[in-house]
Amino acid sequence: MSTHPAISWRDVGVELGGSTVVSDVSLDVPTGAWLSLIGPNGAGKTTLVRTLGGTVDHAGDVELLGRDGRGLSVRDRARQLAVVPQHPVIPPGMRVFDYVLLGRAPHQGLRCASSLQDRRRSLAVLQRLGLEDFADRRVDTLSGGERQRVVLARALVQDTPVLVLDEPTAALDVGHQLEVLELIADLRTERELTIVTTVHDLTVAGQFADIVAVLADGRLVAAGTPTEVLTPDVIGAHWGVEASCDVDTEDGSVTVTVRRRKEQRRRPATPATTELAPHATEEDHR
Ligand SMILES: Nc1ncnc2c1ncn2[C@@H]1O[C@H](COP(=O)(O)OP(=O)(O)O)[C@@H](O)[C@H]1O
Ligand SMILES: [Mg+2]
């Protein structure tokens, strides 16, 4: 196993449109770990993961498997890291199979001609994700959840040691959310992948991640195991909600339940019951 962390952010900062969006982030993700980046909307999660894909300028250093990200060619980077973006751009009219096959491009020659092996690999991944019946469908005719799995398939055929997923379950109902996350967890074990996800659902972070890192206003304000980070204090301070955090002492996972703060839970006065009562008669009012 490599002695380098899979990912290392060192004093990373990003400015966009004249504002500082990420500042002074330093964090290591060991090979084989699952990092969940959490934080309120606009905290800088997507921007921080974009520094891995090389699609945003940054201060400081980003290392991938011990190599300086700035020195990586597009092709080298795509062999190390596959990204499932929050809003993938899919060429209109493209068939599922052809879209998934695009993920093989970093492994193809200069003319990007797909080999029989590339096609077999793509089909195998579609089967693994239960998508083989969609192979001939146009991606733009799929439901949000189906499309999300297709985008995951394209990332998986890239066969990279690091998989980065920005809000991978945002379009999925709870059943499909867990199905996709369990699948990622299985693939992680099968292929010894390092996973980075941004997530909104704190319980998802608490159930799947080894490392949870909290971004707030572009700064890293907490990082550690789910039990260390997912506490009522941290959640109250950064999300402004009252939380209870239920720790499973056997596997170290955390289930987070959030509710409105007590002072905000007071309900407005109930309207006069007589207006609601179905059997109220004039007699009742006398
Ligand atoms: N191209 C851009 N120009 C200016 N500001 C941007 C740009 N992209 C993102 N931002 C701002 O950066 C902040 C962080 O955004 P983002 O990384 O998408 O947050 P998150 O993923 O945590 O919701 C937000 O305030 C957002 O409006
Ligand atoms: Mg985002």
**In percent, how much strand structure appears in the residues?**
25-35%
The computed structural class is alpha/beta
Task: Specify Rg, calculated over alpha carbons.
Answer: 23 Å
Tell me the number of strands. 12
For the largest beta-sheet, the strand count, sense and barrel status come to:
6 strands, mixed
- Discrete helix count: 11
Write down the overall mean pLDDT: 90
Alpha carbon gap, first and last residue: 84 Å
Shape: globular
Instruction: Name the bound molecules.
Output: adenosine-5'-diphosphate, magnesium ion
The CATH class of the domain at 7-91 and 159-265 is Alpha Beta
Strand order of the biggest β-sheet:
6-7-8-3-9-10
Contiguous low-pLDDT stretches (5 residues minimum) are: none
The H-and-E topology, N to C, reads as EEEHEEHEHHHEHEHEEHHEEHH
User: From the coordinates shown, what is the CATH architecture of the domain at 7-91 and 159-265?
Assistant: 3-Layer(aba) Sandwich
Question: CATH homologous superfamily of the domain at 7-91 and 159-265?
Answer: P-loop containing nucleotide triphosphate hydrolases
CATH level-3 fold name of the domain at 7-91 and 159-265:
Rossmann fold
Task: Assign a percent range to the helix content.
Answer: 25-40%
Characterise the protein shown here:
- The strands form three sheets. A six-stranded mixed beta sheet has the order 6-7-8-3-9-10, with helices on both faces.
- The radius of gyration is 23 Å and the shape is globular.
- It has helices spanning 45-53, 74-80, 96-101, 116-128, 144-156, 174-191, 202-208, 226-229, 232-239, 273-276, 282-285, and strands at 7-16, 19-29, 34-38, 59-64, 67-68, 81-84, 162-166, 194-198, 211-216, 219-224, 242-247, 254-259.
- Strand 9 and strand 10 (219-224) form a beta hairpin.
- It contains eleven helices and twelve strands.
- The chain is α/β, with parallel strands linked by helices and 286 residues long.
- The chain has a domain at 7-91 and 159-265: Rossmann fold, CATH 3.40.50.
- The protein binds adenosine-5'-diphosphate and magnesium ion (MG).
- Adenosine-5'-diphosphate is lined by residues 16-17, 19, 21, 39, 41-47.
